[in-house]
Amino acid sequence: MRAISRTVSIVVGASLTGMIWTGTAWAEAWVQIEAKSSLAQAEARARDWAGMFPDTTGFRLDSGWYAIALGPFADDAEANARRRVLRREGLIPRDSFVADGNNFRQQFWPVGATLNSPAQAPEQPAPQADTQSDVRGAPMPAPIDVEPLDGPNATAQTDGQTTPPDTAAQDHATAPEPVSPDTTTTTTADTPAPQEVTPTPEPVETLRDSRRLEAALDPQTKRDIQTALEWEGSYQGAIDGIFGGGTRNSIADWQMKNDYEPTGVLSSTQQAALLDKVASERAALGLQTVTEDQAGIRIDLPMGLVKFDRYNAPFVNYAPKDGSGVQVLLISQPGDAARLRGLYDAMQTLEIVPTGGERNIRGNSFTIEGQNTAVQSYTHAELSRGQIKGFTLVWPAGDDARRARVLDAMKKSFTPIGTSSLDATLGQPMSVTRAALMAGIEKRAPIFSRSGFFIDADGHVLTAAEGLDQCGRITIEDHPASLSFDGGAKGYAVLTPKDTLAPKEVAKFNPDAPMAGSKVAVAGFSYPEALSAPVLNFGTLSALKGLEGQDSQARIEAQTRAGDVGGPVLDGTGAVVGMLLPSGGDANRVLPDNLTVALQAKAMAPGLSDNGFTPKAAGISANRDPEDLQQIADGMVVQISCWK
Question: What is this structure's pTM?
Answer without folding.
Answer: 0.44
